[in-house]
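User: Teach me something about this protein's shape.
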Amino acid sequence: MFEPLPARVMNGLLSGLAVSDEQVAFNPTRAAGLQRLERFVARTGSHYASARNYDLGRDRRSNVSALSPWIRHRLVTEEDVLTRVLASHGLSQAEKFVQEVFWRTYFKGWLEHRPSVWAIYKSELTKSLQALDHDPSLQVTYHEAISGATGIDCFDHWASELIQTGYLHNHARMWMASIWIFTLRLPWELGADFFLRYLLDGDPASNTLSWRWVAGLHTKGKTYLARAENIKKYTEGRFCPTGLAKTAEPLIENVDHPKRPIAPCSTSPTGPYLLLLTEEDLSGADLMPHEPAGVVGLLATQGRSPQPIGKVAQEFASNAMRGMLTNAGEQPQTTEDWSIPILAAAQQIGVQSVATAYPPIGPVRERLDRAEPKLAEAGVTLHRLRREYDSIYWPHAKAGFFALKKKIPDLLADLNLLR
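Assistant: First, the predicted structure itself:
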């Protein structure tokens, strides 16, 4: 899947990386995300294309952007990233990096077209968690996996790194998912849940569909097999696992996921309104037609899983929102019934409109869908405003990624991102 580099090229590359080794500090602010973007933008051309597949360890992240936690919560938007990168390099030079940004966009749009994938994942996850109570062997293997005690050196290291830092190199995520499914023979839903609970960038679309891709469910019949020699090469010899599966038969699901039209977004409020910030888009104020009369921030991080959420992931989301609410003098709130704090805040400032950035499939969307009828009953209108970026790109995520990939130049032109 990945093209090897000549030894002389790789030796020069790694010696160059050693000059700028770095452990990324995931400070949950827009300023920190933009600073990280600015530090990495010079490397989004040929450097990224040649070095991106190497997991050199948590202290050597100069070969990848590590922007995903900020982008996932839209402290920094995809459009921010593409605008800066394309201004520096142009599309031909930064093509590989631009495509990685579009993978996230593609997964978001694809899941919008097929919401049943998320619903069935959640249902199957519940069944798998219940199975742990009745299958001692499954329970032992599962707990060895999530505690980093499988005896597979790389897997155990990455399990610990995930829990401690909330971040993994993309290649490590693929290897872990493959080992989880094809070597440990654990239900993929349990692995996707493990990632979603601990990743700073835990995202319903990217995470669920990436695991399905590895398993052969997203692109039917096409799996990703973790190979020891591949891991050894792309970790610079840090790991050389034994006992990995030699084959990867694709998983099969006996269910269809019909393609649905993307849900419509709302018009902007014309009068005074309450701004609702969620962890799906913490820059959502940028979408609004004028200043809000008040602000409320609601967290749905606990909705990622029926199991406890990792501390670092929780803190990143809550601190990120806390920072965006500072000027309003508000604090993030966590509750299952969002109608209660929304109606209380709307009543306090005397408005009948609530506006928020359009939430894609996931926990935020679920809570808003449950709250909206109660808001309407109380005479409060909910406005879900979608970014132009999503409105332009999501409709093209109906099939495989490569159909979207061909359209990237034209789609970038639609947002005037090509210079």
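Now, about its shape. The radius of gyration is 22 Å. The CA atoms of residues 4 and 206 lie 26 Å apart. If you'd like, I can walk through any region in more detail.
User: That's plenty for now, thanks!
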